[in-house]
């Protein structure tokens, strides 16, 4: 390796860190400003029964609470034995344990109250995830695509949630860590991060798919039987760990709630029913030719997921593509209300979207403006406690 190569690598790393930090700070500042203005101007005229509970006495911090925050906060403060209510929806019972557990211990170590600890964990995870996203996007699609992917991640509809008191950022960090480690053939570490992702959100078990694809591609390049046997064992462990985490998380919830079917019970309480994924995507458009305002961001997010999955398949980025092929239909089958929760899982889709816009500079400003406006709209709705998907 030449000195120039090392120097170029150092410059790229510094660029990635500085760029990601700058975008992170700017995007969060914009959302903070939008949230504060929404609170000052619109909050007083909204129906008090629609408003979110007060999570913090500080308005600048309280605006980062959402409908999931109450249940997570209840889990941290009271355990799984009691479930808080947000309106008529039970929120506390179905939280997978890693995020509330990590937030609790961050609060103990730093002296922060539980809600502030949750917001801190979310922002720290996002800040750590962005350079990983940049490097992965650059590896596959180039530096320009990587820069645009970071902008998409921080301004697209629903990305305000990465700084909210929710598990999305931690899950995003673990998804990206798994994809990076698997590509680099660090199988045991990839299995560990996939297991942690599963303990954050149960859908993380689908990270077995990209691990398996990378493993298949890797094993084809090795012919030494001894090396193959060692690598196969490590790959096997990597794929077993997420499944073990899923089983362990389910037993953990059963033990702490007394309900072996906790997730099914909560889906019923939330009035969620599985439906035709295609109907979720195009149903709102065909429903009388109109789309309700509160589901417009969800329709945009769903459309991004589907379009980017097709792009990944066209580019033959098989590890990312097959992960998306599994994730997108499952999320769409859960309905538009689940679309915003798709965002951390569709990290590969956003990276390839960066590549798409890198080659279409005229389309980028308009798309970026629409995405940013939708994200700001969703932030306002979060502050006001309005139901937005």
Structure description:
This protein is mainly α. The protein contains 16 helices and two strands. It has helices at 3-41, 59-62, 69-78, 98-110, 114-141, 143-155, 168-183, 187-200, 208-219, 225-257, 262-269, 277-286, 296-315, 318-333, 347-358, 363-384, and strands spanning 85-86, 89-90. A two-stranded antiparallel ribbon has the order 1-2. A hairpin with a 2-residue loop joins strand 1 (85-86) and strand 2. The longest helix is centred in the N-terminal third of the chain and has 39 residues, at 3-41. The chain is globular, with a radius of gyration of 21 Å. Mean pLDDT is 84; it is low at 83-89.
In percent terms, what proportion of residues is strand? Answer: under 5%
Helical content band:
55-70%
Secondary-structure element sequence?
Answer: HHHEEHHHHHHHHHHHHH
Summed up, the helix count is 16
Q: How far apart are the termini? A: 50 Å
Q: Would you tell me the structural class of the helices and strands?
A: mainly alpha
């Amino acid at each position: 390796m030449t000195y120039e190569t090392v120097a170029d690598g150092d410059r790229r790393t510094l660029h990635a860190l500085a760029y990601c930090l700058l975008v992170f700070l700017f995007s969060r500042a914009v959302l903070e400003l939008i949230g504060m203005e929404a609170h000052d101007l619109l909050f007083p005229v909204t129906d008090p029964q629609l408003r979110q509970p007060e999570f913090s006495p500080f308005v600048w911090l309280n605006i980062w609470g959402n409908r999931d925050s109450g249940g997570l906060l209840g889990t941290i403060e009271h355990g799984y034995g009691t479930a808080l209510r947000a309106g008529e929806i039970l929120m506390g019972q179905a939280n997978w344990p890693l995020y509330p557990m990590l937030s609790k211990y961050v609060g103990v170590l730093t002296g922060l109250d539980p809600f502030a600890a949750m917001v801190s964990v979310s922002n720290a995870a996002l800040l750590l995830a962005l350079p990983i996203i940049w490097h992965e996007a650059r590896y596959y699609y180039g530096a320009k695509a990587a820069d645009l992917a970071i902008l998409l991640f921080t301004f697209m509809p629903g990305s305000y949630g990465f700084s909210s008191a929710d598990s999305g950022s931690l899950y995003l960090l673990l998804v990206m860590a798994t994809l990076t480690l698997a590509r680099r053939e660090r199988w045991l570490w990839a299995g560990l991060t996939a297991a942690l992702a599963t303990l954050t959100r149960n859908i993380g078990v689908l990270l077995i798919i990209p691990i398996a694809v990378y493993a298949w591609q890797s094993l084809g390049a090795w012919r030494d039987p001894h090396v193959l046997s060692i690598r196969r064992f490590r790959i096997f462990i990597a794929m077993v760990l997420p499944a073990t985490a899923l089983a362990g998380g389910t037993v953990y919830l059963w033990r702490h709630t007394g309900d072996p079917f906790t997730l099914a019970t909560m889906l019923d309480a939330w009035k969620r029913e599985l439906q035709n994924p295609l109907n979720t995507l195009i149903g709102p458009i065909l429903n009388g030719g109109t789309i309700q305002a509160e589901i417009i961001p969800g329709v945009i997010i769903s459309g991004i997921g589907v379009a980017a999955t097709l792009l990944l398949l066209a580019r033959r980025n098989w590890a990312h593509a097959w992960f998306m092929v599994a994730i997108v239909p499952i999320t769409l089958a859960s309905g538009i209300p689940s679309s915003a929760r798709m965002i951390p899982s569709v990290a590969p889709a956003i990276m390839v979207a960066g590549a798409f816009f890198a080659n279409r500079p005229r389309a980028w400003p308009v798309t970026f403006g629409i995405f940013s406006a939708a994200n700001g709209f969703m932030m306002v709705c979060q502050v006001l406690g309005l139901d937005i998907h």
